[in-house]
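Reproducibility note. Readers wishing to regenerate the assembly model reported in the main text can use the exact inputs given here. Chain order matters: entities are listed in the order in which they were concatenated for prediction.
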Amino acid sequence: MAKLTINGVSVPIDADPRTPLLWVLREHLGLTGTKFGCGAGTCGACTVHLGDQAVFACQTAIEAVGDTPVTTIEGLSAAGDHPLQRAWIAEQVPQCGYCQSGQIMRAAALLRSTPKPGRDRIIEAMAPNLCRCGTYPRIVRAIERAAKET
Amino acid sequence: MDTAFVEPTRRDVLRSAGLLGFAVLVGGGIVVLPEPAAAQQADPVPLNAWVAVLRTGKVVIRFGSTEMGQGIGTALPMIVAEEMDADWSQVEVRQIDQGPPNVYGNPKTGGILFTAGSSSVEGYFEPLRRAGAGARRVLIHSAAAAWSVPAGEVATEPGWVVHRGSGRRMSFGEVAGLPRLVTDVPAIQEADLKPRSAYRLIGTDPGRRDIPDKTRGSAVYSIDVRLPGMLYASVLPAPVEGERPVTVDGAAAKALAGVVDVVTLSNGVAIVAERWETALAARDLVKVAWTRNSPFRTADSETDLAALVQAATDGGRDAVAWENRGDAASALSAAGDRVVSAVYTTEHTYHAQMEPLAAVAAVDEDGKGAEVWLGTQSQTLSIAAAAQALSTTPDRIRFHAMPMGGAFGRRTFFARDILRDALLLSKQLRRPVKLMWTREDDVKSGWFRPATAHQLDAVLGPGGEVKALRHRVASPSILQFAAPQRWESAAGKDLLVMEGTESSDYAIPDLLADHVLVERRSRVSAWRGIGWAPNCYARECFIDELAAAAGSDPVTIRRRLLSGSPRGLAVLDAVLAMSDFGKAPAGRAHGLSFAGYKSTRGAGVAELSLDDATGQIRVHRFWAAVDPGFAIHPKNLNAQVEGGILFGLSGLLKERISIAGGEVQQSNFHDYEPLRIHEVPEIEVRIVESGAAPSGAGEIGVPMTGAAVANAVHVLTGKRLRRMPFTPERVKAVLSS
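Running the prediction on these inputs yields the following structure tokens for the assembly.
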């Protein structure tokens, strides 16, 4: 049986190797913080980390994951207090909240590679992720706040 | 691993949703409570239908509206907490999943549990402040009895009951633990309610209660629910509304390991499997022959829009008057060729809520009851739909109204198909079922804001004043389709299409707003902003055209129109000042729109530039001034207005559903792409409080956007944008016309 390393834990996976990581996370393992939005890599609601990279879980077959560790919103921080998560609360970002796990995961990958991104870099990096409620201005402010604090 | 893996099992969901067994009480009244002495520390002691206090001091406040992102689960309990003087840090909020509408219904939505039309604060403000004041009175009278002092000597501070004379104090939790609660208290009168000047909580920003979970992935939506033994279902929808499956070849699908069944439904074919990925794979193997005789086969966006324009502009068509002041028809006919006219159109838009529709149902063994998890804008309507699907009574439906990953009108009357299918599948297969629509299903089977055509005619007076206005809208009826039983008693008046055309803030002596009812050619629904968005777009563009015809300007003409509306003038003046209107930097222009949404007033200014080569509009800044009476939770109200503005801009710049041969041509976000982060302007919102009764803010941002943008484009180019959406190719065509 294949194994994946998810949020630091090795997990046996009983699924066809071509199965998108998204379904394994959500429906096999109950990690429902990662959301299904489009299934086509166009909305970013399913964004997780594969190693240090932000990827669309809906476009990542589990056979492509191999030994690379996967991090989901549930594993981003031990107590839900990653600087971005704190900034998201401080700026009161979420409305419906459905896209926000993906937004936070993409922003976390950005801050890891670019700890002090300018506004233009933030907007460029966040462009793959849709938010229908229109929280974009607050997303930008929250990333700027988190970047200042770290 | 334990902490990382969240499994919202049936038991967990039940525990969180069903902790409080509130007695059903009459509206706002006080009843005799169960013997509190027997109560455990953690048992809630209900003070009335909305409020319970625990002996720990915790106060549990219930709210009737469902949470779709608007922050209502914080704003409504704040109203109760304010009046009862609860300590907000001790308050826990609970959404009502089901309960008698005569107790919990919103007076502004027909008295049922229904969250729509930005009506939650407006409708619940009075009942909830009375519920809070009633709860406070029980606490006061109970403490007074325990102290043997007159109730009139007892007051409250947040979380405490205080006896002024002796300085004695009792926490709310201690009162809840008294052996006897005095519930037979005088009814709350208007004078018992706090004046605004005494508010401690309303008007502050304690932060939304739902936000922390939404930063940690722990908010559970209906699509996230998992039950032991649950099956997964995907439904192949009919390609065109009204078609039915004739023959279904499910053999190849059933041969796939893990496929449980292929079930023919009335308007689709369900593939049910042990796993979701199996259901999706099997779906591609099912061969269905559909009927081909649906009248909707001939639906076509282009020809249907042309027919709408024809209906709006052909003066001979029957129309239902929505608003009639003075005698606009005579004024127009007397004016002859001095009448100024213009035609505007809008087209189908899709809600594109981020969570595709999903429903989870576990039908009881007898097939006559069920437990249901659904993201819905109406508990009452959803429970009724579930009962109907199972031919049972509503009391047999145990309902969980889940947080919604966006709604925008998509989940009002319109979640009933997926709920029905989930119930029927669970009943047939005798296991819990989670039915999920793919994004493609959600788009293809969407219920869209209908296309509309607007004919506007006006007569100007010698001083440039608007003497008469006719606003004629051609559109199918949304109400007729969505709520046929309400349509029967509506006398042809469709508020979902026509609201906004009454232009009630405008001083126009002769005004006629009427509706040419056109046969429905697609599934239609309300969309954030409802009729206000297309109607304010058309009217406010036309007001700018009238200003030009009168040799006036956008500000002067509106000031005059708003001369009888202090609230309208206040938001207009505020947004003019905020934007330094008319003084855009070189290469940019400002456009202005006034816009109401029911009792809430708003005005917006867009600052934009235009790429002549591509026709691409770039909105750089947007200012909005909004008067919601007063704000319960100001920062959240501000966020709602921002979101509404972006929703409006997204629709008018980018969004269009097209239909050909009855089939929706778009399928996912690659061909129906809402606004992305790099397309967002800098937004500034100012709340201009008039002090009137508080009203909604979830939609006021939308109606002001269309004309603000179109009017700015006119300033920049001299061209009118009379067809929404303003896609680059369309703008380019207008520029070269």
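We highlight two features of this model. The CA atoms of residues 61 and 110 of chain A lie 23 Å apart. Chain A is about 35% helix and 15% strand.
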